[in-house]
Fold:
Amino acid sequence: MRVVAAMSGGVDSAVAAARMLDAGHEVVGVHLALSRSAATLRESARGCCTLEDAGDARRVADMLGIPFYVWDLADRFQRDVMDDFVAEYAAGRTPNPCLRCNEKIKFSALLDKALALGFDAVATGHYAQIVDGPAGRELHRAVDAAKDQSYVLGVLTAEQLAHAFFPLGDTTKPMVREEAAARGFYVAKKPDSYDICFIPDGDTRGWLTKRLGEQPGEILDADGSVVGHHEGAYGFTIGQRKGLGLDRSAMDGQARYVVGIDRAANTVTIGTADLLGVDEIVGMRALWCGPVPTGPSRLGAQVRAHGEEVPATVEADGARVRVVLDRRIRGVAPGQSVVLYDGTRVVGSATIETAGRARHTEPAS
Amino acid sequence: MTAYLDHAATTPLLPAARAALIEALDVLGNPSAVNAAGRGARRLVEESRERLAGALGATPSEVIFTSGGTEADNLAIKGAYAARRLADPARHRLVLSGIEHHAVLDPVEYLCASQDANVTFVEPTPDGVVTASSLRAALAQDDPEDVALVSVMWANNEIGTIQPIPDLSAVAREHGIPMHCDAVQAVGHIPVDFAASGVDLLSLTGHKLGGPVGTGALLARRDAQVVPQMHGGGQERQIRSGTLDVAGTHALAVAVETAVHGLDAEAQRLIALRDNLIGGALALGLGIEVTGAWTKGSAADRLPGNVHLRVPGTDGDSLLFLLDAAGIDAATGSACTAGVPRTSHVVLALGIPEDEAGGAIRLSLGHTSTHADVDAVLAALPEAVARARRARGAA
Structure:
């Protein structure tokens, strides 16, 4: 097959490209230019869009002897990922830009362009497995549970999956690094990137403040009393504990967490940990990676990357989905994605609209 | 089969230059040394200087060897700006065409950011030509007395259009302003006579005309004032320090001489190939357009080996990729180290709208090009254009 290997400049995508070549595919390396800002290109030490990363990717492609190109998807990334990220926070939600990037950029803009240019598929260094199942290709968790990235790929449809390769799904990260070293890639020891690539210093609140401006408001305790002030409710996330900047600490000595964000009133409500527990999630924009579940289904639900999977009863209704968890979990914020699993298989995902407490009755049939 | 159509980026060594380089690599001695070995090395360097000067209508003392075109441009722009401001601090304006290479644009940008320079651009005609009257108007936009330097390239690296350099230098001379000319794409391809051109400073490089990469020269009139940008042993009229590259200068001189002596016949050969390629591309019925002036059978307004095509509804990088996959080495414009495609400032300067400027490819011919190369491009274009159009619709 003719395959575009998306090469970020990191060790994972380097080994993924090499493996595709070894498997006998015709491989072309493509680095995505996602930022037009020269300052970002020159100054940022990490992330996936620096000049240095493009150079690292090119070096690996040259070693593999495959053609290498930089494709400029900065406009699409700005519109579909960064602008969306700002809009979601402005609306009081907590988006995951990596999911968004996989959905709109890597397996949409990039894949569509590759297909139009005559390629058959896109390969990335994501840790996830594709398995041929009875109803077509299935997306499964990676062998390396610590690195598993099936969560951020939970937005892929069967059609997108049909044109995807994840050559690292059967390997652990340490083995990938060893393989990179054995292949002579000098990116073998390059540190992993953890931050949001377009916020390389990790200061999400500061980055948002530059775009949304300061919007001072009150921080309330669960009983409604004012316990502090904030510079913008968008800077907070449900379940957040650090950086609350309270005027006074709680009398009871218990830690306080963000338990609610009211964008209309511009208030942030805090409370004790027990207020964070939810067991009912309503999701919108449901995306199914294969057959849509019919009737109440017993599935596993995961609400953040590397978060734990909780057994749940799931009911799909068009683009909406209702997930009742077997037990309460903390830190579920609107805007996050809930990804649903059947064993190791990804069934689908939805964007969390609301999270609350079910009465723990049997789901209506 | 493969077809190399990127000679404007770099062209293969001429056999004579290759032989000269290898022969001179074993010459022992530092040309600045007074001992016997030094004398032998110096003799070869000075012979090279004379041969290069002779081929380009310059005197030997006007030749300052450099590491290439970018260094020659930087030395000319920064060195002349510094010298002119030392003589009169009021001279802080630089006047240049809007289609200069980055080796000129970026030193100017640096001077603007760090040394109080400001710049007046002379925009070209839609055909890609800078006229004497537009230069005159640009000088008159402000007090011509405050202009430190005029810089206009001889031939454009992307679209191949040729500038009326003697006419432009005459305008600069009317105001007593020195003029620099980046002739990197012109030397060895079209007649260049330094004395007759009337310019004060002229940049050239070896690897665009069949010499080695890493060789080049700045031709500087004896009365041109240039502050050195590299200080050291005082070589090259104290303007460009650094031990001279004996083998490189020798091979450069042989390449320039060979290219200039064979210029008429080679230009006729390339013009025929160029016209076949442009004519053939326009006749494909794909809506392809040629960028810049083009007169069939002539190198009066366009380099003999330059073809620059715009393909509406495509992105240049898609075309580049598809031609690459078909075994054809093409370019979208000047090579960019970042590899991030940017819309060409040259194409934009012609007044072409941004959404039409992107789908551009440069196909540049040189001394190893053949009819088979032209045929390969014409055969590959229809499929490449169709796919590139689909790709644009997709992304």
Q: What stands out?
A: Chain A touches chain B through 23 residues (CB under 8 Å).
